Each structure stands twice: as structure tokens, then as C-alpha cells.
Amino acid sequence: MRVLGVDPGLTRCGCGVVEGSPGGAVSAVCFDVVRTPAGAPIGSRLVAVADAIEDQIRRTSPDAVAVERVFSQHNVRTVMGTAQAAAMAIVVATRAGIPVALYTPSEVKAAVTGSGRADKAQVGAMVTRLLGLAQAPTPADVADALALAICHVWRGAARERLGAAALTATAWPAT
Predict the structure, then answer these.
(1) Do 5 and 15 form a contact (C-beta atoms < 8 A)?
(2) Is 141 a catalytic residue?
(3) Which of 15, 49, 111, 133 matches a 20 to 30 Å C-alpha distance to 124?
(4) Catalytic residue among 19, 54, 55, 68, which?
């Protein structure tokens, strides 16, 4: 399975593509960060993010896209930009016919490090180790994007099966 992970952000949007199988080894296909200038118009910044994600999809043909679920932060302006960038990733993937999965930061941390409370350094170190990289990907947004992709490779299939089972269970006629 090949997964594009997106750590959304307007100033820095991390993108990373990972290949692997549930419970198996994973390898990095490519990773990068999309940067947009803080003073640029919001529309231009969102187009730049969308274009970069679309380019990644075109170049790498992922089976799924994993996006960090935006959670409440103290700075409303920051959370708005993050949510808008996440929306761009969701729209671009959906238009390309690629399934999208959303994961909370604690789900990703738990999948990659074993602890939902891991800090950025721990996530970066585990991503480096799991992917066999010579050094930790920088900035942290890239490591987070790769962690999202790893999380989906390892947990996505089980998550989809549970969702399908829940739908089947609710679709059974009452007796």
C-alpha cells in the first residue's frame, strides 16, 4: 500500500509518501515541505498547497491520503489556516478518486511511537528509524506527514474493516 501523508499548514505543509503493508516494514518514497509566504493572499497560499499535493498525487499514485485531523488550538488564526490547508488536501484527493483518512495527532503518535503523548523529537526519531533514513526529516512537518502515512499503512486497513463491519451490523434486519 502506498500512502501520502499530509501534515496541513499554511506556512509549512508537510507531505510524505510511504509504501508498506499492515504490520510490515515501511519505506519512504518521497517527502517534502510546501512553504507559502505569510504575507501572501490566502487564496494564493491555498492554491500553492493544493497544487503541491496534486503534483505529489500525480507523481506517486498513492492508494490513500492520510491527513491530520485539525484539533482546537488556542490561536484561532492558526487553526483556521491549518483547517483550510487540510481541506485542500481532502478536496484534491477526493477529486482524484483517492480515499482520505483523518487521524488525530495522538492516534499518529501512538501508532508510530507507542505513546499518544510522544513529543516531536520522539516522533522524528521513530520515523527516521522505521524508514531507515540517515537523518531525521526536517522540518518537523515532514516527519509528521511521514508518521501520518505510516499510521495509515499500519492501521488503515483494520480501521476500514471495522467501519465496514459496523455498517453491515447496522444494515441487518431486526428480528
Answers:
(1) yes
(2) yes
(3) 49
(4) 68
CA pair distance 65, 17, nearest whole angstrom:
9
160 is catalytic: no
For residue 109, which of 95, 119, 99 has the smallest C-alpha distance?
A: 119
Q: Would you write out the chain's pLDDT as a tens digit for each of its 175 residues?
A: 999 999 999 999 999 999 999 989 999 999 999 999 999 999 999 999 999 999 999 999 999 999 999 877 678 878 999 999 999 999 999 999 999 999 999 999 999 999 999 999 999 999 999 999 999 999 999 999 999 999 999 998 665 655 556 666 666 565 5
- Give the domains, in start order, of the chain with CATH numbers: 2-171 (3.30.420.10)
Residue 7 is a catalytic residue: yes
Do residues 47 and 67 lie in contact, with contact meaning Cβ atoms separated by under 8 Å? no
Cell numbers placing 122 = 520522539
